[in-house]
Amino acid sequence: MRQVVLIRHALPAAVAGSPAHRWGLSLEGRRRCGLLAELVRPCELQAVVSSLEPASQQTARLLAAELRVPVGTAAGLQESQVDAALDWDDPARRDDLQAFFEQPGELRLGQETASAALQRFGAAMRETLVRYPTGNLGLVSGGRVISLLLATFTNRPAWELWQALDQPAFAVMLVPPGKVAFLAETVTVLDRPTAATAD
Fold first, then answer.
1. What pLDDT, on the 0 to 100 scale, is given for residue 147?
2. CATH annotation of 2-190
């Protein structure tokens, strides 16, 4: 039985007026990749594969470097794309996002429905598992598609999962049979004050 570690990319650096799928990682996001590596190290990943988006690629590269494993990309693993620069703190935008999850067959946000995004992401994940036929694999993408997939294997709604998942966060899936064995909503639990900064 293989493990697939689904990883929500680390914290990006927001760029005003630019869509989120073009953002790269912030300095804090880069730092958190080190924490992520320590938490996923026991999974003994053989490779890390990401979507083509900058934040996901950078998360994958930093993680793979820490773990000393190959890194790659795969089409179809991308986040559900929203071309506009969105402010998730705007109540109207949050309502659209919630509707995206709760009305998955309706086009409520971006260029595809939640159902279509889930189908596309699931197909890309299966193709990636064929491309990497042995060993445990890390897959890095955005929080919406990962939340949609996790919701199909847990009793939690996708909207609730999306709100709970930090950047980064990860879930360990067993394939087959396709069940979630472990979900880490945040990696910052590893943050501890050093002796020099502790009061």
1. 96
2. 3.40.50.1240
